[in-house]
Amino acid sequence: MERVSIIREHLFSLTTLGIKYDLDRMVAAAAAIGNPHNRYPCLHVAGTNGKGSVCAYLESGLRACGHKTGLFMSPHLVRFEERFLIDGSPIAESAWLAVYDSLVPVIDNLKLTFFEATTLIAFEIFRQERVDWAVFETGLGGRLDATNVVKPRISLITRLAIDHTGYLGDDLLSIAGEKLGIVKNAVPCIMARPDELAIAELAVSICKERRAPLRLIDNSMAMEIVIEDQGATFSLDGRRYRINLAGGYQVTNALLAVSAMHEAGISDHDAIGRGLENARLPGRFQVVAARGKRIVFDVGHNPDSAMSFCRALHYRFHKGESKRALPSLCIVLGIMKDKDYAGMLPHYARLAKRLLLAKPATSRAAATADLRRFVPPDFAGECLEFQDIMGAIDAALDGQQETIVVAGSFFTVGEAMQYLGIEPYDSLMMEKLPHIRLRSADHRDHREADDQDDDQKHEEQNYRQKQRACGANPADAVHDMEP
Description:
Elements: H1 2-13, H2 24-32, E1 42-46, H3 51-64, E2 69-72, E3 84-86, E4 89-90, H4 93-110, H5 114-128, E5 133-137, E6 154-157, H6 165-168, H7 172-179, E7 189-192, H8 197-209, E8 214-217, E9 223-228, E10 231-236, E11 239-243, H9 250-263, H10 269-278, E12 286-290, E13 293-298, H11 303-317, E14 329-333, H12 341-351, E15 354-358, H13 368-372, E16 382-386, H14 389-398, E17 403-407, H15 410-420, H16 452-457, H17 459-469
Parallel strand pairs: 1-5, 1-6, 2-5, 6-7, 7-8, 13-17, 14-15, 14-17, 15-16
Antiparallel strand pairs: 2-3, 3-4, 9-10, 10-11, 12-13
Helix pairs in contact: 3-9, 3-10, 4-5, 7-8, 11-12
């Protein structure tokens, strides 16, 4: 166990190196270990909103077609292992620890950042696991993202929105240019059709320059779209498809995935359909139950994703009610200070009867007082502030509202899930769960000696405690930049 702790501390200490926005170190690191990412075909996904959903559809579709899959996504919610999925399940802790231990000389020599090291781990894990297909989600942007050393069979770009302006530019056209940086010479690009003509023209220009066939995707290519309480159905090329990720925007995400698989030569349409139907993604309109409450988790962290989520939320649970009067809804909200919370708050406030503003345990979190300044003045419900997520969750569970939403950030959702004892991939989309025993407020300092899995799950929290004692930012030690 001591060796395990040393390895984990070494990896998580790399967060102090921050973000180094170039590819030189990543190219050298991959070459130093034999370029494992070139040993298997892959799909590469960039975008602002919908990346995770598209990755989930791709992975599930490929797996349903009989392929062994690897999926790399970030950040994680509760456990670091969630970043590396083999056939849809997080890897064992021992798997990544062994790989990382072997990569330390390269990581130290090249001074890789946390995300670069994590990407290198994924490359090697997927090689050792002999995956048939890998799916890689960009972490930040695209052009200079650590994952952009891959040469995929297909490049995919999801919906674009304003985000990470400090790195990607302060307008959509600049952001689009960074995302389109994943387009490779002669590699087909499949992109969600942008609303802005200038962005579509930019995509056409870049793809033409790189001789990359471009296909723009929107819902008009599907027929008979039916949005349901939990998912949607649609027809494409004479076949009927069902998806179970909630929200009307998910149809576009599914169409992107189907189009990419077809372009990549995956032609078992029935299996692809089964894959779409079985696709799940934690933290994206994920519904669980605890103490007689329905809890909906959503990690969306920009105004566009907040608007889309709130529309889907209202449609699913409150179709017959006014959009400004949902007496059964309580929203726990924690947002990072580098996000556009001024543009997010009105969407949540429009639906909530009770708004609980909380501060996740990271230096990046916005102060609750700053969030409160952007609650619309005509908000007629109750608005309370909490200095941590646990207090807000307790207050929400003690309230009268039947539905609790936990939203605004990966950090917020992850902390809430950990406090409630929820394993993201064990509880996907389950409306009826057995009673979940809440942990005490000091649960992070008490580990159950007879439960090895629980020990592993709280290993990161122990490291946070050490970082806190040293004056470091505990949450920053295990989470990299929110995508």
